[in-house]
Write a structure and sequence with these properties.
Structural class: alpha/beta
Strand order of the largest sheet: 14-13-12-11-7-10-9-8-15
CATH architecture of the largest domain: 2-Layer Sandwich
Shape: globular
Oligomer: single chain
CATH class of the largest domain: Alpha Beta
CATH topology of the largest domain: Dihydrodipicolinate Reductase, domain 2
Helix content: 25-40%
Length: 387
């Protein structure tokens, strides 16, 4: 593994905070970080100064010098860089979500399927020790048949820099749902074994980001105020899967309630509850042997760096030519997100299948309420095809 790592020349596309986050872990892992690319001259300067590597204004020059790339750009630009890399035979670690919309996500998935190179989407929370312990217990049958996931990724005040690409729908594709909800949806489906997703009922809201009096203690990035804020800052959804399995989802950048990162995995023999950020894990069960009784078992886990372990898995797959297989999962998540937005606009349950192949006139019918008026309660994430 170590000798293989030393031969995989790796570059980073997108040299902002998450690009630096990945760079630090590449260096710690012993992967040769040989360059970076960003359209911002200042970002290139800072990256070159910190890591003493070549930096490029165009991705073609970087791609000529590497065997693998980590793509950490805003969502809209994932396709451009990932598809070109895969067509060149370069391995790609692509930050979540797969793309900013379903159509772009499908093109990336096709490029990954057609390429001989490895492609991995950055669902780093799968590598949390608490998640891996729960996954192992599910696979060993200790929870029985897992039928329901309660998935929460809720901040009290955590809207990322207003005015940044995160709060611009044309670049991000959405707000809290596509930023935080993408992790919660993937993790829930991952623990369920990625069953077919049938339909979704959801509501998205924009209640805090557009306010002049948005009160917060700290903010990632600069606060340029509410002008142009056109994404959701919270979402609630119910996701129905094959086999009568289901997911209840709560995700938010901002709410008037305590933060919540709790996942509850409900099985017929036992359940597991864990905190995604803290790693606290408890197993709940009941027994009729001897007197009836309930058992709550705390499981102590060792905290781990999930991004570092994600990178290790990526390079291990390259070394052993073992397909990673999570791009199709990421495409499913993208379709679920799309369905939640459509459901919110249509004010009804919608099917997930073939969401990207709906015609504009079909979508127009979906976003009409009973009075024949367009539903404008939430950001128009699902109405891009009409504009």
């Amino acid at each position: 593994m170590t000798s293989t790592l030393s031969t995989v020349r790796t570059g980073i596309v997108g040299l902002g905070n998450i690009g630096h986050h990945h760079a630090e872990r590449l260096v710690d892992l012993g992967v040769p970080l040989v360059g970076g690319m960003d359209v911002s001259a200042e970002a290139r300067r800072r990256f070159a100064t910190r890591y003493d590597v070549d930096v490029y204004e165009t991705h073609e020059d970087l791609f000529d010098a590497v065997d693998a790339v980590v793509v950490t750009t805003p969502n809209k630009f994932h396709e451009e860089y990932a598809v070109d890399a895969l067509e060149r035979g370069l391995h790609v670690l692509l930050e979540k979500p797969l793309a900013h919309n379903v159509e772009s996500a499908e093109r990336i998935a096709k490029a990954a399927a057609d390429s001989d190179a490895q492609c991995m989407v950055g669902f780093n929370n799968r590598f949390s020790n608490a998640v891996q312990i729960v996954k192992d217990r599910i696979e060993r049958g200790e929870l029985g048949r897992v039928t329901h996931l309660e998935a929460n990724y809720v901040r009290r005040r955590g809207v990322p820099g207003r005015g940044s690409w995160f709060t611009r729908r044309d670049i991000s594709g959405g707000g809290a749902l596509i930023d935080l909800g993408v992790h919660a949806i993937d993790l829930a489906l991952y623990l369920l074994g990625y069953p077919d997703v049938e339909d979704v009922s959801g509501v998205t809201r924009s209640e805090f980001g557009p306010r002049d009096d948005y009160a917060y203690l700290e903010m990632w990035g600069e606060d340029d105020g509410p002008e142009g804020f056109d994404v959701d800052d919270s979402a609630s959804a119910f996701v129905r899967c094959a086999g009568n399995r289901a997911i209840s989802l709560e995700t938010a950048w901002a709410t008037n309630r305590p933060a919540n990162h709790e996942f509850v995995v409900r099985g017929t023999d036992a359940a597991a509850r864990f905190d995604l950020l803290e790693g606290d894990l408890t197993i709940y069960s009941a027994s009729s042997t001897s007197p009836n009784h309930l058992e709550d078992t705390s499981v102590e886990t060792r905290g781990n760096d999930s991004h570092a372990d994600e990178q290790a898995a990526f390079f291990d797959a390259i070394a052993n030519d073992r397909p990673i297989g999570n791009v199709e999962h990421a495409l499913t998540v993208q379709r679920v997100i799309d369905a939640i937005y459509r459901s919110s606009d249509a004010r009804r349950t919608v099917a997930v299948a073939d969401s990207s192949r709906r015609r504009p006139d079909d979508l127009a019918a979906e976003v009409r309420d009973g009075s024949g008026e367009t539903n404008d309660r939430a950001p128009k994430a699902a109405r891009d095809d009409l504009e």
